[in-house]
Design goal:
It is built from 6 helices and 16 strands. The protein is of the alpha/beta class. α3 packs parallel to α4.
Length: about 260
């Protein structure tokens, strides 16, 4: 609403193609091409899920990938965290503030988490660990009532009586459209020239979870989004005349 109040034209459409390599950037949407001197990339990152029966149906009704977003809904409940890395240990530890108990389920015997994060989780009396266990099915009709797991060694299945499942197996940045154009790290996140939001391409800036694989919160994404807008504005101002007719010439769609 604030953006609209200041004249922002918001289009809720999917971008099909991006060409960021030239001085005029091109964004193809539904067969129309938008052109601009500067572009801010903010496609975000998608949480990875398990893809097991019941998971999608109960997403938001006991299944979550964000402890800081949804943890307080599980006060005095028994819940499970799936994962074996630092994010899983961090989520499990955080959730003990609300939950009665937290069970960490990991498909292997050894954890990928750093020693300090693992030791901190193991020292918490509310957290227990189930290793060599793979989630098979989330139970429940309108809310989570249990999680079926399979022993990866024996193949036997059992059910955990829980009312919530938090998936902490990482995120995938939505950077497919810009691969081969801007520099990405090994995980696919857009690399920026800290402390700015500038990417490897002149006039292209990036913000939010597309860049940040540590905090991944709405407030931090909004902060870097503000920084990217300011960086883009400053970049345009430094180039003077090229932006004189940005709205009239570059901001209108043309046939793709």
């Amino acid at each position: 609403e604030q953006a609209k109040r200041f004249g922002t034209d918001i289009r809720t459409e999917d971008v099909e193609e991006l060409d960021l390599t030239g001085p005029i950037k091109k964004v193809v949407v539904n067969g129309e091409t938008y052109q601009a001197h500067a572009v801010v990339l903010a496609m975000g990152a998608a949480a990875r899920y398990l893809g097991i029966p019941g998971e999608e149906k109960l997403l938001g009704r006991g299944v979550s990938a964000c402890a800081t977003c949804d943890g307080f809904f599980f006060k005095d409940q028994d819940i499970v965290v799936v994962g074996g890395g630092d994010s899983a240990m961090e989520e499990a530890t955080f959730l003990t503030r609300f939950a009665r108990s937290v069970t960490v389920v990991h498909r292997r015997e050894e954890f990928r988490a750093s020693r300090i994060m693992l030791e901190r989780a193991k020292a918490n009396a509310k957290i227990r660990f189930v290793t060599n266990a793979a989630p098979v099915e989330v139970l429940g009709e309108n809310s989570v009532t249990g999680l079926v797991i399979r022993d990866t060694v024996t193949g036997e299945t059992s059910t955990l009586d829980v009312t919530g499942m938090f998936v902490a197996i990482g995120h995938d940045p939505r950077s497919e459209l810009v691969k081969g154009q801007v520099d990405l790290d090994e995980a696919g996140y857009v690399i920026v020239k800290n402390p700015s939001t500038a990417t490897s391409l002149d006039g292209v800036f990036a913000a939010g979870d597309l860049v940040d694989h540590i905090y991944q919160q709405a407030i931090t994404a909004a902060g870097t989004g503000c920084s990217a807008a300011m960086d883009a504005e400053r970049w345009l101002a430094e180039r003077g005349d090229i932006t004189a007719n940005t709205v009239a010439a570059a901001g209108q769609p043309v046939d793709a």
